[in-house]
Design goal:
Blueprint: H1 9-12, E1 19-21, E2 26-28, H2 33-43, H3 51-72, H4 88-100, E3 102-105, H5 113-124, E4 131-135, H6 140-150, E5 156-158, H7 163-175, E6 180-184, H8 185-188, H9 204-207, E7 219-222, H10 234-243, E8 248-252
Parallel strand pairs: 3-8, 4-6, 4-7, 5-6, 7-8
Antiparallel strand pairs: 1-2
């Protein structure tokens, strides 16, 4: 929560994801290291940090930020040494994702980003599921095949077909009959509400919760995540909406 004067709203609005809550009359921004750095950069010495945020930032730096920075340069991870089928750098990448919880994996094409993401889920364990993979339509079956290869104990459903068929597949994720659902970007925006952006006005339909919003998704993986680079696009704002409450958010792109 950011307490500031109304005339300073344009300053707070520079933080991505900032929101105005008219009921208590305060601004809120995502709780992240990046947001804290941005607030300090915008307000400078005028920014007063409360004790709760101070304690959170110390914990986040020691438990997440510093270990992640070390893993960016690591060639292997002893914590995942039991994953012998992975290459050393893939173990380091999977460990990076599991520690970071919200991260971008930007390895070049062909280095196994899909494998690293699945390995990260398995390293986390049951707390990472149910999971949703958002990818191009041509990659849905590939993701299902990779889960069957690297995490054969997980039940995977590919969201495809007409509206009724897609809803049935999503329902399997909600009831626990499936651990993972794989959906394409175009299909995602039909099964979740949308987030707003800037001065854009959401229609009643876009604000309404849909099938995926009823599922307690723990992990969202955005494959080829450069497809969500336009903040005004519906598929981008659908991805924001479905990932807002997820514990783990992994973005993958070699572009």
């Amino acid at each position: 929560v950011v307490g500031c004067e109304f005339r300073e709203k344009e300053m707070v609005k520079q933080i991505p994801g900032s929101r105005w809550d008219s009921e208590p009359g305060t601004w809120s921004v995502p709780l992240s290291w990046a947001a804290c750095c941005q607030l300090r950069g915008i307000f400078g010495v005028r920014l007063e940090v409360g004790p709760a945020l101070n304690a959170w930032s110390r914990e986040d730096r020691s438990a997440r930020r510093d270990p992640c920075l070390a893993l960016r340069e690591a060639e292997d991870s002893e914590d995942l040494s039991f994953m012998t089928a992975l290459r050393p750098f893939q173990r380091a990448g999977a460990r990076f994702l599991s520690v970071a919880r919200h991260a971008l994996l930007a390895d070049e094409m062909g280095l196994g980003k899909t494998v690293q993401a699945i390995a990260a889920l398995e390293a986390i364990g049951d707390d990472a599921y149910p999971a949703l993979v958002v990818c191009p339509n041509s990659m849905k079956r590939t993701w299902a095949d990779e889960f069957n290869r690297w995490a054969p104990g997980r039940d995977v459903v590919v969201v495809t077909g007409g509206v009724v068929a897609r809803k049935k597949s999503i329902a399997l994720l909600g009831t626990g009959e499936a651990d993972v659902a794989v959906i394409n970007y175009e299909g995602l925006r039909a099964h979740t509400r949308l987030e707003g952006y800037g001065s854009m006005t959401l229609s009643p339909e876009e604000k309404t919760a849909k099938d995926l919003n009823e599922v307690p998704i723990k992990t969202v993986i955005a494959d080829e995540s450069h497809r969500a680079k336009d903040p005004r696009a519906k598929q981008t704002r659908a991805l924001w909406a479905i990932g807002r409450d997820a514990t783990y958010r992994f973005a993958l792109t070699g572009t």
